[in-house]
Amino acid sequence: MRTCSDYLLHLFELLAGEGTSEQLAQVPVEARTAGLTTPELERVERAGKLALRVRHTLDERRRHESELAALFDTAGDLARVRDPDAVLRAIVHRARMLLGSHVAYLSLNDSWAGTTYMRVTDGCASALFQQVRLGMGEGLGGLVAQTARPYATPAYFEDERFTHTDEIDRAVGDERLVAILGVPLSVGGSVIGVLYAADRTPRDFSHDEVALLSSLADHAAIAIDNSRLLEETRDALVELNTAHETIREHNSAMRRAERAHDRLTDLVLRDGNLEDIAEAVAEVLGGGIVVHDEDGTELARAGASPLPWPRDAVRQSRGSGRSVPWRDNLVCAALAGPELLGSLTLVGCREPTNADRRLFERAGVVTALVLLLRRRTAEAEERVRGELITELLGAPERAHRGLAARARRVGFDPGGSKVVLVAPAGEVDRERLASAASRYAGQRHGLAGPHLDHLVLVLPGTDAGCAAENAARALGTSLARPVTVGGSGPVEGLDEIADEYGAACRCLEALLALGREGQGAALAELGFLGVLLGDRDDLSGYVRRTVGPVLDYDSRRGTELVKTLRSYFDHGANLSRTARALHVHVNTVSQRLERVSTLLGTDWWSAERGLEIQVALRLHRLSGSE
Fold it and tell me: Which PANTHER family does the annotation name (predicted)?
């Protein structure tokens, strides 16, 4: 008879041996028929759920890695291939692989006929579909070619946004296509064709899939344009012998453009960062480069001083798809389809040549690709960090060893000192808060993610109060509204994070109850209220923080300041009654209280401080320290 351990071991063997989700789900079913005890069966079922989650996470990461590998392979192909037909076949094949679609195809515009025709297909079976021509504005592809904007439909025949014609609908039906995504291939603001991905079943194309296909289409347009330039140059050499010098200059510009594009593509393939791209473009164009993100934050700079974000120029460049002048500079929007990812500013280039302008615009395409890949990587890391938070707060301590290894992979040290911060996560801006907190934690090598009704951050550090205050200020600035943050810690390792989460939640509740919205603090900074809500084992720490200087003074000098303070409060802050109770002169009491003011500050007698001091004195007496 198989035991609980046998089933758990079988789950691990399936995970290690690339077992399918169906195989993993079958293990708890077998355990239920094996006659295990209820606790053992619950353990096997919980392990089965965790194994399915691990399998799902591994599958998602493989898919993401395959997607990035396909995109990098595409850039490499486009950098090496010069034959136009080979370029187009590579584009279409990579598009199909990148989106995992049933069919991919590419059409080019015929400006003379006013139509767009099918040039290359991959995965198509219908001869009728491969020979179809679309008039400008007809069908999904004709609309993309006419408007220069991406369009997607999950159900083509039911979509009334497009002009349906019998010829087009017959061809699409013959290929049995249902869901279609089309993005424009643009060169210099003009659409030269359309790149498609299509499925034979209903499918909603995501925003990221549209952006990735648009980025690939931009690279494809550049490769097609390079091929066109090369062909034009060859024709000119045959037909225009008298223009030898002009042709030589044209060739030089083209080779320079190819070298620059190959160099930028190589940077992408080698996982170069924005600083590398800025330096390469600045060197090629002989000017300075400043890169901003879509919100105007500087991301990289080479050969130039800091510049303000040229908001209006970026808007103009985004609308036209071309670089635009700004002051004595040139500005180009970095776009993935219609989405603005950032911008480049070429400093000190008032009147660039057409070749330099085109080089600069191609640098914008490469920058958009790097920004898009960086965002995809950041989103993946944010998701992993959020999952770690959930599992740290919900998984048993015995599972923390595996979590520690995963935490190290995202740059988080599971063994160092760390503090736990908690902020309320409302439904209105929960995603914005989670995104801002994830960026904030990532910059500090920490973790962040939602848990229940809270947003939880685990950051390296030893001062929970300071960390909470800084986080409240930063998150409030990002969201343009007050964000209250409760803190707790520090702790070592991962096992006590769940306990500190509870303490941080109590601190958050106390801050909100006290009307301190938009602030950050730890329980230790909330006085006796923090003692009531927090760890009762820290009573001596509260006493030391409140009246420690007076205790130390009495200990060193043999004075009776503590006794005088207690009597002063017991007799309603009346000097005369206090003096009679202590059998000393009123002046003696006054002198002792002046010494207390020196040690604790002149506001020690205020209502709030006085209450905290009285609580500390009472705890000191109850602790038996006198």
Answer: CARBOHYDRATE DIACID REGULATOR (PTHR33744), DNA-BINDING TRANSCRIPTIONAL ACTIVATOR ADER (PTHR33744:SF1)
